[in-house]
Amino acid sequence: MRIFNTVADYVAEKGKEIGVSDWVTIDQDRVNLFADATGDHQWIHIDPNRTQRDLGMGTIAHGYLTLSLLPYLMSQISTVKSVTRGINYGSNQVRFTNMVPVGSRVRCRVVLKDATPKAGGTQITNEVTMEIEGQERPAMVAETLSLIFE
């Protein structure tokens, strides 16, 4: 975990890698809970027997499940002491570039792409890559936006 004292300290890292999160396992329970929370019960996510029988593989995580893990994983990477509040502002781009088989471990790598003044705070644009342990191609690449205030 990298700790920055001020937003200015964080912004000084523009263009650089901020850090990498810990690995998290994507297990079937997590996938099933996400399916229940979102109503997305597509069989490729929740029916290991059918995916094995019909596709010769195990179930895979929802793309949006991987996206929903970003706040948790990114919170392991860095913090700014002077920030009083932060808001997820959205994404400019999200691409699901590889399947995440259930049982895999994923982690995030964050690069600070840009930082600009906005609404009395600072808009942070991060390039976030979700890696899958043991695989070359990442699960997801996203350009995320946050607003942080001191």
Shape: elongated
What's the story with the biggest beta sheet? 6 strands, antiparallel
- Amino- and carboxy-terminal Cα gap: 20 Å
Poorly predicted ranges: none
Number of helices: 6
Structural class: alpha+beta
Features of the shown structure:
6 helices
How would you describe what is shown here?
This protein has 150 residues and is of the alpha+beta class. It has helices spanning 7-11, 28-38, 43-46, 48-55, 63-68, 70-74; strands spanning 2-4, 17-20, 24-25, 78-80, 85-96, 105-118, 121-132, 140-149. It contains six helices and eight strands, in the order E-H-E-E-H-H-H-H-H-E-E-E-E-E. Strand 6 (105-118) and strand 7 form a beta hairpin. The radius of gyration is 17 Å and the shape is elongated.
TL;DR of this structure?
The protein contains 6 helices and 8 strands; from the N terminus they run βαββαααααβββββ.
Provide the fold topology.
Elements: E1 2-4, H1 7-11, E2 17-20, E3 24-25, H2 28-38, H3 43-46, H4 48-55, H5 63-68, H6 70-74, E4 78-80, E5 85-96, E6 105-118, E7 121-132, E8 140-149
Parallel strand pairs: 1-4
Antiparallel strand pairs: 2-6, 3-6, 5-8, 6-7, 7-8
